[in-house]
Amino acid sequence: MSSRDRKRGLREDERELWSHIIKKIEPLRARPLPSGEEAAEDAPPPRRGKTSTIVPVREPKPARQEPALTPLNRREKQRVSRGKADIDARLDLHGYTQAEAHAALLRFLRRASDDGAKLVLVITGKSGVLRQQVPHWLGLPEFRVLVIGFDAAGVRHGGEGALYVRVRRARG
């Protein structure tokens, strides 16, 4: 056994502290839990008589889920950041409170979806709470029906302070 494998013993001051701590500990239960045999003796006898039929319970249908958000692929992001693909609309959230920004973003994405926009730019700023909140919001159910995916913008469009958002087209 190497010296690394051996556990060191408690020093005198540690032993005193430990004994002081364990004196204050109270058990969670007043009586011990019964062992297997004792538990079987305490259990009520099985009921005799009518046998019930087991009716299978139907699982409720899960709520319709939108597909996972997907970031822009590398080629698509390059084309947009180099100016070779169009950004259909822009929203600058500088100066908005969180509540105002949330409402403005939802209105903006609804309008963009209705107008047939494919890609929009949302400017959040490089620091602050909106930079953290907007990506979180885009994953929420009310936004998921409008958003296919998003990714950080290229440097010429604001870099880490902005997002390219792919918009889902309006149905109907």
Describe the 3D structure:
The protein is 34% helix and 12% strand. The mean pLDDT is 80. The termini are far apart. The protein has a domain at 74-167: Ribosomal Protein S8, Chain: A, domain 1, CATH 3.30.1370. With 172 residues, it is an alpha+beta fold. Helix 4 (98-114) links the parallel strand 1 (89-92) and strand 2. The protein is extended. The chain has a 4-stranded mixed beta sheet with strand order 1-2-4-3, covered by helices on one side. The longest helix is centred in the middle third of the chain and has 17 residues, at 98-114. The chain contains 6 helices and 4 strands.
Fill in the keyword field for this structure.
172 residues, alpha+beta, Ribosomal Protein S8, Chain: A, domain 1, 4-stranded mixed sheet, 6 helices, 4 strands, 34% helix, 12% strand
Q: Span from first to last CA? A: 74 Å
The largest pleated sheet is described as: 4 strands, mixed
- The third-level CATH topology of the domain at 74-167 is Ribosomal Protein S8, Chain: A, domain 1
Derived structural class: alpha+beta
Outline the secondary-structure elements.
Elements: H1 12-23, H2 36-42, H3 74-81, E1 89-92, H4 98-114, E2 119-123, H5 129-138, H6 141-144, E3 147-152, E4 162-167
Parallel strand pairs: 1-2
Antiparallel strand pairs: 2-4, 3-4
Write a brief caption for the model.
The protein is α+β, with helices and mostly antiparallel strands. The chain has six helices and four strands, in the order αααβαβααββ.
